# Entry
Amino acid sequence: MTQTLLITGSTGIAAATAALWTSGPVFVVSNDREACETLCAALPDAAYAVADVRDETAVMSAVSTPSTYRTVWPVAKVR
# Structure
């Protein structure tokens, strides 16, 4: 099974970690849409959702939407 890296944040250490990941897709959750778009555009296989990671309901909603479900399911189900 392909592993997806779930990153919380879209700048700084989060962006650097995402850039170093070579084992599969990256899924970014951050409250900064513009930074998410910039980061994902620089990665070969990435998607994002905009959510405040301090809000569990917002994060669960972000990773449960049909457009992200296939990307995130492998990591979201290991909760």
About this structure: The longest helix spans residues 66-76. The radius of gyration is 11 Å.
